[in-house]
Structure formats: C-alpha cells, structure tokens
Amino acid sequence: MHELIYGIAAKIPEIETNQGVQIKKPVKLNPPPAELLANWLKHPPEEIINLWMQHALARPATPREREILLDILGEKPEPSTMGDFAWAIVNLPEFQLIR
After folding, report:
1. Hey, is 39 helix, strand or coil?
2. Distance in angstroms (rounded) separating the CA atoms of residues 84 and 5
3. What is the DSSP string of 41-84?
4. Whole-prediction pTM value?
5. Residue 53: its pLDDT value, please?
6. How many C-beta neighbours within 10 Å does residue 85 have?
7. Are 9 and 96 in contact, with CB atoms under 8 Å apart?
8. Nearest-5° Cα angle at 61, 70 to 91
9. What is the pLDDT of residue 50?
10. CA distance 36 to 54
11. How far apart are CA 80 and CA 84, in angstroms?
12. Which of 15, 28, 35, 86 lies 20 to 30 A from 42 at CA?
C-alpha cells in the first residue's frame, strides 16, 4: 500500500563517526512532536499534503504520491495517521538529501 513512500531506501556505504553520535543521541523537541502534529488536524488532507510536500521537498506531490498520502491520512486525519504521514515524508531519500 505505501510501497512508494516506504519502499525506497538509499544505501549508506558506511556511517561516519559524527553520524553515529547523532543516531544515538536523542533530541527533545519543545513542543513535543505529538503536539506539533495535532495542530495539523484542523486542516483538510489535501491542504496538509500540499503544504508538507512544498515545505519538505520544495515541489508538489506527484499523482501517485498524493494517492498514497491521502490513503495514509484518510478522510479525517487523526494523531496516529498524522504520525504515519510525517514518518513517510521524512523517510524519503529525497527529503534526507534536500534537508
């Protein structure tokens, strides 16, 4: 179902020392991510997709991406679906290369 979003993975030949430290060290966000994502629940799914894709990837979603992301969010986004949606976007190799 989410093969295009979750199925793409870039291979990293080796982890540098600094990357290893960043992976192990947790970061506390203020406000917490759940609170940040909950703020998006008042927006319709199409608007969420448009804004996130534009800010995260500096481009609109392709028709296939839009279809998958709408499937993740559902008609009325909930906190759990917003978490899945955010996870799908930030794990795109394209996001990781741009940001």
Report:
1. helix
2. 11
3. GGS-HHHHHHHHHHHHHSSPPPHHHHHHHHHHH-SS--HHHHHH
4. 0.64
5. 94
6. 24
7. no
8. 80
9. 95
10. 18
11. 6
12. 28
| CB 53 within 8 Å of CB 61 | yes
Confidence band of 8 (pLDDT split at 50, 70, 90): very low
Structure tokens belonging to residue 65: 């991406």
15-51: pLDDT as tens digits? 555 555 555 556 665 666 667 777 888 899 999 999 9
- Domain ranges in the chain are 28-98
| CA angle 32–67–82, rounded 5-degree value | 10
83 C-beta neighbours (distance < 10 Å), count: 15
pLDDT at 17: 53
The three-class DSSP label of residue 92 is coil
pLDDT tens for 55-76 read 999 999 999 999 999 999 999 9
